[in-house]
Amino acid sequence: AVDVGVDEITHLPGFRGPAPGMPLDPSPFELRGEVVRRAAARGVTVVTTVSGIEEVPATPDTAPLRALARSLYRDSLRRLSTADVPIAIGSDRYEFTARDEARYLSRLGVFEPATLLTMWCRTTAATIFPTRHIGVIEAGAEASFLVLDGNPLEDFSAVTRIVLRVKQGVVTGAP
């Protein structure tokens, strides 16, 4: 995908793991250094979509697959982040949202809360709405934001406690 000139890649390799019955071999899903460097140089944004592994029931039989997936995701996300590849947050789970994906990423422990919030609020917003000035608090930016009951830098679960919504400067109310 990087070599053909895409602007964005949605899904890390191995986002659902190997097919049932296949060996638990991470090598087909590992991001290679040269690919990561080319993605960074070309400004390719990667959308995570890794929380899909949560659809695999947590049982003793699936524990190795879930552990392998978490390890693979951590490694891939660290490689991308270290190379300054833009990372956006999105879910490929139809009944879930980017909030669920962000919470899963928080539990993976790869990113500090401030980095995770920047990925979610700035990078994700910019990749979805490239012509709008959103995801920042500065003069001339669109006044669309949430007020939370808590500081997500101290307790990331505060992102689930929305007390007020403002969209384009209009208070849309509490949840």
Would you write up a description of this structure?
With 175 residues, the protein is α/β, with parallel strands linked by helices. It is built from 4 helices and 6 strands, in the order E-H-E-H-E-H-H-E-E-E. The protein has a 3-stranded parallel β-sheet with strand order 1-2-3. Strands 4-5-6 form a 3-stranded antiparallel β-sheet, with no helix packed on it. Helices cover 33% and strands 13% of the residues. The mean pLDDT is 89. A hairpin with a 2-residue loop joins strand 5 (162-167) and strand 6.
Please sum up the structure shown.
By secondary structure, this protein is α/β, with parallel strands linked by helices. The protein has helices spanning 33-42, 63-82, 98-108, 113-128, and strands at residues 8-10, 45-47, 87-88, 145-148, 162-167, 170-173.
Succession of helices and strands: EHEHEHHEEE
Uncertain runs are: none
Mean pLDDT: 89
Describe the sheet with the most strands: 3 strands, parallel
